[in-house]
User: Fold this.
Amino acid sequence: MKYRILPYNPWLKTYARKLRNNMTLSEIILWEHLKQNRMMGVAFQRQRPILGYIVDFYCKELLLVIEIDGKSHDLDKGEDLIRQKQIEQLGVSFLRFTDAEVKQDLHNVVFRIETYVLENRKLRDEKRFHG
Assistant:
């Protein structure tokens, strides 16, 4: 299956690599459920550059970004929304979770991601087979 390549600033690749090596505890916890196609067989990338930004997790099969909002996001809610809207214009969807949700209610976070994957994989397959 061929995936659409999203534009990104190549200068962000080095910074994204640093972020991958210094993930927050919440990112580490969620990554254990997303890495190596563990989330229902779909592949996720971590700290992925898109446009001029770096998102926490990205699934190119479903055009899905997963963001974990921690304390730094409390200060930048307006910037986060602008960034999200710009990326959504590329056809990408977002799931957002708080740092506390990942740490204290991981079961529900994983369930919400699984539900999204099931619903959107089905829609993608229907479009592919019914044109």
Notes: Residues 106-130 form the longest helix (25 residues). The mean pLDDT is 90.
